[in-house]
Every structure is written in structure tokens, then in C-alpha cells.
Known about the structure:
The complex is a heterodimer of chains A (110) and B (117).
Chain A: E1 9-12, E2 18-23, E3 33-37, E4 44-47, E5 61-66, E6 69-74, E7 83-91, E8 98-101, E9 105-109
Chain B: E1 3-7, E2 10-12, E3 18-25, E4 34-39, E5 45-51, E6 58-60, E7 68-73, E8 78-83, E9 92-99, E10 104-107, E11 111-115
Parallel strand pairs in B: 2-11
Antiparallel strand pairs in B: 1-3, 3-8, 4-5, 4-9, 5-6, 7-8, 9-10, 9-11
Amino acid sequence: SYELTQPPSVSVSPGQTARITCSGDALPKKYAYWYQQKSGQAPVLVIYEDIKRPSGIPERFSGSSSGTMATLTISGAQVEDEADYYCSSTDSSSGNPNWVFGGGTKLTVL
Amino acid sequence: EVQLVESGGGFVQPGGSLRLSCVASGFTFNIYSMNWVRQAPGKGLEWVSYISSTSSSTYYADSVKGRFTISRDNAQNSLFLQMNSLRVEDTAVYYCARDEGDYYVHWGQGALVTVSS
């Protein structure tokens, strides 16, 4: 089955740039999506279609994709950005669509 | 304001059944596809099932295929997940989520399903 691979954890100091990667064989052909999830809350979409930012998401959140890797970048990370981040994409190699999430990356800002 | 409210979670023994509901408001329910996504305690997100706006297409993760059934009632603005032959590994918070085209902006608050003997 299709997999998206993320690092388990990333740690930065406040004001530094945090980069979270997501690796998947189909990413050259499929969009990546990124979700932020804080403890006890539902996920929040922060990036869609590789690079687009939903309304209400701070400009410090940006996305990029090259080859088999998508990257979420948080420029000038804030303490409130500490959360779990999940990438997501789709896979149709089995004939039916399958929506896949990466394993998640815990971002620590301290 | 878009709202999705799940209900029907609870405690069930292995092999048992449970039916989750999700009531939608604040948008035209019958033009959107819907999904169920779950999260086991301390684990990551897992897509479970998809249903198109008219119920003409349904898809399931391999982990639940043959055991779970997704359905909807557009007249009642409601989404359902019938879960049969439940396993311990089905223990999770189940979220309903509105489909925006391969991603989700609007999620419910989640319903906890615990499968244990």
C-alpha cells in the first residue's frame, strides 16, 4: 500500500525556520496537503495543492514540492505553532482512490 | 457557519457493532462528498471511507473493507458509518470531514469508539 514518510519530530527555537518533509513515490504526480493538529483538537488544513494557503492561515506557513518530496516550511516559528503536522495525498494505483496520511511530525518550538 | 457534529460513539466488545452519525449544518449538504477519518489513541490520522454527494460512489480503506458501511441521508443532512465485526484496533476517535477535492477544511469534533473486552 502507498505510504507517505515524515520525520517523527522536528525541534526549533522560536523565530527559527522549521521544515517538515513528506516523502512519497506518487508526489511528482499528486498534490500534497498539510494539516496541523493541536492536542485534543481536530486537524486544521494549513496548505493545500502543494503550495496554497487557506484563508486565515498565517503567511509564515508555506509549502513546496519537488520530485518525491513535499515540504512544509514555517518561517519564524512561534510557540503557538507547536503541534503535530500531517501530510496527505492520494493514491489510485490499486484502481480505487485511497487517501493517505503520513505518520505525522511532532513540532517542538522552545 | 459550517458545522459537523458526530454522535454514536461508545464502548463495544470485540465482534460488536456500532453506528456513527454526523449531522451537517451551515452548507448545502447534498452537493458535497463526505469522508470518515479516524485517529487511534496517540497515533496518526487514517482515512476510513468516502461517499459521493449522491451516494453513487463509496470507497473504503483496506483495514475496514467488508466490515464498515458508509451511507448518507441528504434529506436529513446526515452522514453515517455502520461498523460491524469491530476489532480492538478499531478503537479511535472518528471524525467526519467535508470533501473539498482530496482534502478537508471542515471537520467534526470527533466521536470516540472504544473496542475492548
